[in-house]
């Protein structure tokens, strides 16, 4: 697939996503829930099917042809992930089921063995539950203390407050790169510099950034980074943890079982080298191979092109939403080119509950998310029971935004009649 400049990016790729051409409730589907999960192109679906149809076998353990082919494809994806985020070594890439498992791996392998009573962990109020709950559990067991960065008046990460929270007691900073609710892009490189000055480790939740922009872990200089495949055009059940080699080498295994061992005796075991030390049991082989296909797909388009096109959509989405008086959008505003925030908008609409809004929009074929988006602490901080969220991807179009805005206005008019 080769891209030219004659059409929009979405025009060139939509044929690769059959699901986008179906109807929902008798209306053409407008899928604006990409922050929850992305759709999958045929290249990815076919790669998954090819594995099960043509070379289904367990990896690493067999000398026969099918096992060798499966192993090559499975390990080939590790190389693709490493290149995609610019890791220094393929050994720094650990397969996980999702980002939640990756964070838990760090929490239990590193956190339980390095945190002491009184040590401090810095998070932010905008974190996804998967980047709060594991640290709560570890803090309860180790005596570590959680501290939270709040928001600026523009509803972004308060870097100045963060500086005041840092101290010699800070052992870990775990921060989202892009908020799935506020859409703000956090200054992760500066966060890493500041945290490292105090000898603290840094974990970055990149679930909402890796699918939408170029991410370079060496430039960022984070100690760990996590992402989920299903948000980047790959299947569910596959994600990855990046960790600096020396940090991963210092961490004990998280799960025990097959594959992660060197030798097993009745009274003790020795463990495999990285990355296999952290990959116990039969993995999600087909899903990992399909993740490689998704990375190929995104790379072929170009992450810079994806980011630029999504910025254009963001500018248009905000321009349209800001014309509706009832709408209050959360997080920073984009600039005129749509830069400065992610391609999503979480909003409230007067007295209309987000769930009611989402339900009626669904009747018009428009899929958006409603609720707390796994950010209950953030919603409490903002004094909100829920928000509605429209989130874009590179296969969305301006025309779909127009359909969404029209349906949104009609829905608000309907509720206005009820409340009036």
From TrEMBL:
Cofactor requirement: pyridoxal 5'-phosphate
Domain Aminotransferase class V: 30-404
Keywords: Pyridoxal phosphate, Transferase
Reactions it catalyzes: (sulfur carrier)-H + L-cysteine = (sulfur carrier)-SH + L-alanine
Domain of life of the organism encoding this protein: Bacteria
Pfam families, per the entry: Aminotran_5
CDD domains, alphabetized: SufS_like
UniProt cross-references to SUPFAM superfamilies, sorted A to Z: PLP-dependent transferases (SSF53383)
Enzyme Commission number(s) from the entry: 2.8.1.7
TM stretches of this protein: none
PANTHER family in UniProt: CYSTEINE DESULFURASE, CYSTEINE DESULFURASE 1, CHLOROPLASTIC
Family, per entry: Belongs to the class-V pyridoxal-phosphate-dependent aminotransferase family. Csd subfamily.
Name of the molecule in the record: cysteine desulfurase
């Amino acid at each position: 697939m080769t891209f030219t400049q004659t059409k929009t990016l979405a025009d060139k790729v939509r044929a690769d996503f059959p699901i986008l051409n179906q109807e929902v409730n008798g209306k053409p589907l407008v899928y604006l829930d990409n922050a929850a999960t992305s759709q999958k192109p045929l290249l990815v679906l076919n790669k998954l099917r090819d594995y099960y149809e043509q070379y289904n076998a367990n990896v690493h353990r067999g000398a026969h042809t099918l096992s060798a082919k499966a192993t090559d494809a499975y390990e080939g994806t590790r190389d693709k992930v490493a290149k995609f985020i610019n890791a220094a070594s393929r050994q720094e890439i650990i397969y996980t089921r999702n980002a939640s498992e990756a964070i838990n791996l760090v929490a239990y392998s590193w956190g339980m063995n390095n945190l002491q009573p009184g040590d401090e962990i810095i998070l932010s109020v905008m974190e996804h539950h998967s980047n709060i709950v594991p640290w709560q559990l570890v803090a309860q067991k180790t005596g570590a203390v959680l501290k939270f960065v709040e928001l600026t008046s523009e509803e972004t990460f308060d870097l100045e407050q963060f500086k005041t929270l840092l101290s010699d007691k800070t052992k870990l900073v775990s921060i989202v790169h892009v908020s799935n609710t506020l859409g703000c892009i956090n200054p992760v490189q500066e966060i890493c510099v500041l945290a490292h000055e105090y000898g603290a480790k840094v974990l970055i939740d990149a679930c909402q950034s890796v699918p939408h922009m170029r991410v370079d872990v060496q430039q960022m200089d984070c100690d760990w980074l996590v992402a989920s495949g299903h948000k980047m055009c790959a299947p569910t059940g596959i994600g990855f943890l990046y960790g600096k080699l020396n940090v991963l080498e210092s961490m004990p295994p998280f799960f025990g079982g097959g594959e992660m061992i060197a030798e097993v005796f009745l009274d003790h075991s020795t463990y495999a080298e990285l990355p296999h030390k952290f990959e116990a049991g039969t993995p999600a082989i087909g899903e990992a191979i399909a993740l490689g296909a998704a990375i190929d797909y995104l790379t072929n388009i170009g992450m810079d092109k994806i980011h630029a096109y999504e910025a254009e959509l963001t500018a248009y989405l905000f321009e349209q939403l800001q014309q509706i008086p009832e709408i209050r959008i959360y997080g920073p505003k984009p600039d005129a080119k749509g830069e400065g925030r992610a391609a999503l908008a979480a909003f409230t609409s007067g007295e209309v509950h987000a769930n009611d809004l989402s339900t009626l929009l669904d009747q018009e074929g428009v899929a958006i998310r409603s609720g707390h988006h796994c950010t209950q602490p953030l919603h409490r901080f903002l004094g909100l029971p829920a928000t509605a969220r429209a989130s874009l991807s590179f296969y969305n179009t301006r025309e779909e935004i127009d359909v969404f805005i029209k349906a949104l206005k009609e829905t608000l008019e309907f509720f206005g009649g009820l409340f009036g």
